[in-house]
Amino acid sequence: MEGDNIPRIGISIGDINGIGPEVIIKALSSSSINKICTPVIYGSAKHLSKYKNLLGYNDWLFSTVQNTRQLNKKQINLINCYEGPNFELSLGTVQKEAGQLAFQALDRATQDLKNGYIEALVTAPISKDNTQGEGFKFPGHTEYLANEFQAEEVLMFLVSEELRLGVVTGHIPIEQVKKNITKKQIKAKLDLMLNSLKVDFKIQKPKIAVLGLNPHAGENGLLGKEEIEIIEPLINEYRKKGTLVFGTFPSDGFFATQQWKQFDAVLAMYHDQGLTPFKMLAFDSGVNFTAGLSAVRTSPDHGTAFDLAGKGEADSGSMLHAIFSAVEIYKNRAEYKELTENAISPVKIQRIIKSSKEKK
Questions:
Q1: In the CATH scheme, what is the code of domain 152-290?
Q2: Contact yes or no for 30/59 (Cβ under 8 A)
Q3: What pLDDT is recorded for position 3?
Q4: Which CATH number fits domain 1-151+293-348: 3.10.20.30, 3.90.25.10, 2.40.30.170, 3.40.718.10?
Q5: What does each C-alpha distance from 281 to 68, 164, 233, 256 come to in angstroms?
Q6: Where are the domains of the chain?
Q7: In terms of DSSP bridges, do strands 155-159 and 287-291 run parallel, antiparallel, or are they unpaired?
Q8: pLDDT tier at 247, thresholds 50, 70, 90
Q9: pLDDT (mean) for 126-140
Q10: Would you call 184 helix, strand, or coil by DSSP?
Q11: Cα–chain-centroid distance for residue 329?
């Protein structure tokens, strides 16, 4: 980014036959969006133009560019990514060509992110099975990006103004959850969460709640032993180090009694245990953030919603929050890097004091 503090935010189009294009158009329709970022949509000008006209957004304009060097900071920019046979919009349906477009847009945006041509990436929802192909053999965006950035571990971190929630296991079958609830795996996710809260969200002493795996958090071993054998001993290790990690909490009572409001973040054991209450509390404003990547990636916390595609009924709140969050996290990381790089170590401080005394 050259000469200013306005980040370039890439936005992959997602499945063109879902609500992704609609929430992008609505989120970027505000004239003030270019005051906080330079949006770059990765997709297809032809299909996006038809989509916006179907919605009645005829006056919403974007500038088609070849690459990020041609970006117009005062407009919405679009980079054409699709290479394949011509196809028409078929809103609300699963279409092979739409899956190809979704992957090609994601791939181009990801490469630009890796090369530093954009500062952050916001991904519109894809149809996971429809996007599968030679270059995409992953359960979702999170796993694909972890592979592209060669990250050993990442954290699916759902964030909103009210609640931040991560999961130990993500897109895996429920029968595989138990075998993945290990001390090593939970520790990796807790470490990622703690670091992200400090670096990405500027919380110096974060307080984290850890949910149990079993009903009633195992009921002292009666309903399962993972809590007393794996999770709680690990929590005690963190507590001995002075880290504010608490648990285990039964998921139902924890959310029903609003205990979550007492914590900066919550770590759930598996996907639906965390995402069900999160989406109930923050569906229109929730953001899916991938912690642990060297670059910033966010996404709205909803899917393609094929049943709503093209009807003009999709709420763009989550997409707008995803864009705002990408900008904020990017700036927080830059600020943290500057502070830590310019910080004087205790050893260096002692040397300065010693040198000053000797001169006297």
A1: 3.40.718.10
A2: no
A3: 43
A4: 3.40.718.10
A5: 37, 11, 30, 11
A6: 1-151+293-348, 152-290
A7: antiparallel
A8: confident
A9: 82
A10: helix
A11: 10
